[in-house]
Amino acid sequence: MNRKDMETFAANWIANWNARDLDAVLTHFAEDARFISPLAAELTGSPVVEGKASLRSYWSKALEASSELHFTLIAAVCDIERQVLGVHYVARRNGKARRALETMRFVNDRQVEGESFYSAQEMPHDD
């Protein structure tokens, strides 16, 4: 993927999550993808989720637990040589907002690894 591909991917990724379109999100994952998240640890007991089927199960639970979910893209950080994309965004979930960063590594245009990071402090409300 080139820089434009990665930037487009980041914008589409945000839009797919905002639409709660899990099928669209999962389309870009390799079958044996590995993902690490502190939210996964809360919902599944393990921070590591392995395989596309396990990702579907984890994210289905996460969506069910989210009465409110909206992501706002801050920036897409692209490492073309390593095929790594960092998606920096504001995650609003169930009345709380935090800055987040998700790193994604691609092989043959499929995400094979990912990890999410969340700020330690909640952001103030805009209202």
Secondary-structure topology with pairs:
Elements: H1 3-18, H2 22-26, E1 29-36, H3 38-44, E2 48-50, H4 52-64, E3 69-79, E4 84-93, E5 96-107, E6 110-118
Helix pairs in contact: 3-4
Which outline best applies?
globular
- Terminal Cα separation, in Å? 38 Å
- In spatial order, strands of the major sheet run 2-1-6-5-4-3
The number of helical runs is 4
Write the element-wise H/E pattern from the N-terminal end onward: HHEHEHEEEE
Low-confidence stretches: none
Q: Strand portion, in percent?
A: 35-45%
Main sheet record: 6 strands, mixed
Any key phrases for this structure?
127 residues, alpha+beta
Structure description:
- With 127 residues, the protein is α+β, with helices and mostly antiparallel strands.
- Helices cover 32% and strands 42% of the residues.
- The protein has 4 helices and 6 strands.
- Strands 2-1-6-5-4-3 form a 6-stranded mixed beta sheet, covered by helices on one side.
- It is globular, with a radius of gyration of 14 Å.
Quick recap:
The protein is an alpha+beta fold and 127 residues long.
